[in-house]
C-alpha cells in the first residue's frame, strides 16, 4: 500500500473520530491518537492556521476598541465610532460604558 494512501486513510479515520467525539478535549484526542500523529493530520494543521488567523483578528479588534475612549473624548458619537472603525455598535457602547464608569 502506498504511503500517501495510508496517510489519507489515517486522516479520514482521525477526522471521523474528531467529529464523532466532539465532547473530548484536545488533550484526550491527543492521548487517543498520539501527540505526534495528531500534529501530522490536516485537521490539526488547519485548526492551527485558523487559530493564528483568529488571533490576528482579535488583536486588530482589541486595538480598535482601545481607541474608543479617545475618540469619545474628541467628541465622536458611539455610532460614528462604530461606523468609522467598522465595529459592532454594541461593542462600542460597552467600551464607552466601561470607560465612563472608570472616570
Automatic annotation (TrEMBL):
InterPro entries linked: DUF2887 (IPR022573), RpnA (IPR010106)
Any matching Pfam family: DUF2887
Highest taxon, organism lineage: Bacteria
NCBIfam families, A to Z: T_den_put_tspse
Protein name stated in the entry: Rpn family recombination-promoting nuclease/putative transposase
Organism: Floridaenema evergladense BLCC-F167
Amino acid at each position: 500500500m502506498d504511503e500517501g494512501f495510508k496517510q489519507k486513510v489515517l486522516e479520514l479515520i482521525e477526522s471521523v473520530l474528531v467529529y464523532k467525539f466532539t465532547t473530548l478535549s484536545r488533550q484526550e484526542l491527543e492521548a487517543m491518537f498520539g501527540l505526534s500523529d495528531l500534529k501530522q493530520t490536516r485537521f490539526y494543521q488547519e485548526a492551527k492556521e485558523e487559530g493564528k488567523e483568529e488571533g490576528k483578528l482579535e488583536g486588530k479588534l482589541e486595538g480598535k476598541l482601545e481607541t474608543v475612549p479617545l475618540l469619545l473624548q474628541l467628541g465622536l458619537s458611539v455610532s460614528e465610532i462604530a461606523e468609522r472603525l467598522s465595529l459592532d455598535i454594541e461593542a462600542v457602547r460597552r467600551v464607552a460604558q466601561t470607560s465612563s464608569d472608570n472616570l
